[in-house]
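On clarity, I found the account of how folds are encoded harder to follow than it need be. What matters is that the chain and its backbone geometry are given together, residue for residue. I therefore recommend that a typical entry be quoted early in the introduction. An entry of this sort, consisting of the sequence and the corresponding backbone structure tokens, reads as follows:
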Amino acid sequence: MPKQPHYTMDIVGEIARYDERDMLFARQDLLRYFGPESPQYQAYFKDNPIKERYHQSLSRKTPLGGKNCTDEPMFRAQFRWIDQLGAEDAVNGEFAAERKTFSEQSAARKVKAIARMYGADLVGIAPLLQQWTYSHVGATAGDQPAYLPWGTPIDLSHHTHAIAMGFKMDQHLLASAPDFPTLLATAQAYALSAWTAVRLAEYIRQLGYRARAHHFSNYQVLAVPIAVDCGLGELSRAGYLLTKEFGLAVRLSIVTTDLPMKPDNPRDIAVQSFCENCQRCVEACPSNAIPAGEKVEHNGILKWKLDEEKCYAYWHVNGTDCGICMDVCPWTKPPTPFHRLMANLASKQGAHQRWMVYADRIVYGPHKPAPNPDYLD
């Protein structure tokens, strides 16, 4: 078994593999793609009537799509092709019969360089811990032959390593949160993350090794803890990965493989102590989904537990995803020399972190959405 890496988050108990069918978006897909009369819907919600009522109530609220007739096509054009890249023959495939052999150091160097060339802003490598793999398929683009059937058991036991890639979001679009441009920022980052992941997985298969891409339309792994393992950042109070380079404004994709590579180490950038002193995302969250109090144990991990249902319900009040927590985070600022200096200071635990939060309040004040770009008028 791979050696457990050092964590900046506290593992205090046994971690059970997560069933993707329990994920909020997967449950919403049961209503959106399968429908109440489908056997998948009936099988899941028979034992979860409270969750069924929650998702039925969302279906009566504002759909995601912006505020005018030209908005929705902008992000649908992105997500349609992300779904195409989620098909099994895109994320997975046969590997070459002839296996190329080279050192673990060389493999890591090559993979990282190719990932960056394909579009990744951040990339790291770690042993794949099976506790971060889903147990069953839940979220798909419907009951389509191109995807594994809903409820299919997941087995990645032959994959030994994970490559985590981070893709920065457009901060000019994100600054309009919670208005429609935040959805465009999300779609753009997810589109690039999917395109990069499927190409990197194919490159590794051409080397003669197993490789599977995991992105927005077809994950079989939990991206955030794997990204923590790979040294991209830490889990934040808001529930997202927080990176030193881009704050919360980053989206993730993963490639799992049996290619031996030299792993990176998890990074301690003092996010836990910073988030203890900072309540910016808590104060700005319109749905009160981000906890203000202490960490709690959830599936063996001591963490701040986001209330996903409150968060997602607000999307359907607002008509688009939110993103306020990302934009208001003191780490999520344009990468100017001054901000890089501040990020270096913030990533060291100490009393100065409290003063940095205070300074952020004074300089930036409460969240104010930036004007939409002209082409969204």
Q: What stands out?
A: Residues 1-369 form one domain. The longest helix spans residues 181-206. The beta strands are 10-11, 122-127, 161-168, 211-214, 234-235, 241-242, 250-257, 296-298, 301-303.
